[in-house]
Amino acid sequence: MSQSPTQQEVPVTEGANVSERQSLDVLDQLMKPEVQESLTVLVENLPKLAEMVTAMTKAYDFAQSVATDKVLISDTMSAMGEFAKPVVDKAKGVASAAIEASDRAQAEQTSVGLFAMLKMLKDPNVQQTLRFAQSFLSILNERQQQQR
Description:
Structural class: mainly alpha
Distance between the termini: 71 Å
Number of strands: 0
Low-confidence stretches: 1-7
Radius of gyration: 38 Å
Helix content: over 70%
Order of helices and strands: HHHHHH
Shape: elongated
Strand content: under 5%
């Protein structure tokens, strides 16, 4: 077996301890050209890597301090609760109105006739809902035409 002039053969006996074997494995790895090229690239980029690690450490320290700050967490949760409360209240109101309307519709056995519908068309809420439905369907139609 031929060896390079920089490599010396180190006899490994059966009684050699594990750390000596690991040292030989590391030396064998360091002798590979691709490993040496990679180490050269790493050494050349050490200033950049040190700068990046410093920035990442600062960011980690900041994130850690924010994540463990009980006052900040409490204030954030309170602010989110205040922001979400009107939305939740509105959703609950709409849901309860939908449930009540469903109950009324099931309880009433009368049919809605033409004159009852004409009378409903005078209601401002019905007019607003119809305008919304018309606009919504018009937008959906436009988008569908654009996709074709």
